[in-house]
Amino acid sequence: LWLAKWQFSKCLKMLQGVNIRICTTHNMAKSILIYGGMGALGNELVSYFKNKAWRVVSVDLVANEKADSNVIVSASLSWSEQSRTVKEGVTSCMGTDKLQALVCVAGGWAGGNAAAEETVQNADLMWKTSVWPALICSQIAAKHLDSKGLLVLTGAVPALGGTPQMIGYGMAKAAVHQLVLSLSSKGSGLPDNSAAVAMLPMTLDTPNNRKFMPKGQDTSTWTPLVTIAELVHSWTEDANRPTTGSLVQVHTVGGKTTTRVE
Description:
Blueprint: H1 2-15, E1 21-22, E2 31-35, H2 40-51, E3 55-60, E4 69-72, H3 79-94, E5 99-104, H4 119-144, E6 145-154, H5 167-183, E7 195-201, E8 204-205, H6 207-212, E9 223-224, H7 225-236, E10 247-253, E11 256-261
Parallel strand pairs: 2-3, 2-5, 3-4, 5-6, 6-7, 7-10, 8-9
Antiparallel strand pairs: 1-4, 10-11
């Protein structure tokens, strides 16, 4: 018994800091990778596409048990280390199979104007949680996306203009918008006939948003997560798919959601 406990403890120490890939093989017709698969929106997307009989690969800090395959990345790694880890993990899971869709919903929010002490720190965090994953997803798409596949990155409506009270957030989301414009241009490295678009929601109806919202706030302008999942799925089916390079604003008013393309 003592020896078994010692061996188990030794194995745990060996695993510390190791990035684990949990992969399964499938012969499903369509595959999607969701970067940020354990966030509120990412989890909704995993469930939605699984229910549509897609093969789902999730990339996040922890595994999503509902996904067919998981690539787990550590937040302590540098940008280049995260990129290498995720690309190796996806290649291990996908092999020569192609992705029909790749959706990046990793991100976060932090405020701060130019006078705030925490602005630089928050801007650094926004870059790591929004821009890093978006560019890594672009690299994955260059190798694994189908020739008519879809890459969806997440921007934000406020970043179309000034964001004085959340400078770092606005900078990061504006960078994602620019990335989409670059990816839609000739010579970007993406497969021919694929599409790169950004969805720009206002406020998503997530458990955390409800938890921290001011008392009595009107939530009729919040977009339900399932609505986003339905929208992305419709794009994968070529139904009203925006042209490559589109920045698609998502607005909800009175519980009704509409889109507008920039």
